[in-house]
Description:
Elements: H1 3-10, H2 14-36, H3 39-56, H4 66-90, H5 106-120, H6 123-134, H7 139-146, H8 150-181
Amino acid sequence: MDQTLVVRARDGDREAFAALVRAVGDRLYALAYRLLRDTDQAQDAYQETMVTAWRQLAYLRDPERFEAWTRRILVRQCYAETKRRSRLTSTGVVGDALPAGPDEGHAIHDRDELERAFRDLSLDHRAVVVLHHYQGLSLVEVAETLGIPQGTARSRLHYATKCLRRTLDAQDAPVIAKEGLA
């Protein structure tokens, strides 16, 4: 990350901020999508993150930490977006948005099962899995990003993995039982 761009943006240079957004934007949007599993929600969280980052950039003390700082803002926005969507769903404004996945080929079937299992995780557990496995952050960095103790990050990762395994095993059980009867 170019620290001079961060300093220029912090001083009000919109072009420098636009360059920073181009540098981290794709990774932040991908993170939002992996956390929220919905393109509209991910786009909303990403846009709110960029607006918040621009407004609060003057408070960023360490220009080297720009990407980690924006990642943390994004994770908070994802939590807020989930709460907002939950309120809308509970009042009947938004229906169930699970798309029916195609059932062609073994790889697509496996991907769909994993997607369903991943959606079953709470956002707390999903965030740790995504930050650690997809973003490649250490558990210390995950804990820092989420604002939780390192032991909590480790515990959430353990339980998320356990939950994914249990869900995937449960999805495979009926298939095995049916095959055994044939």
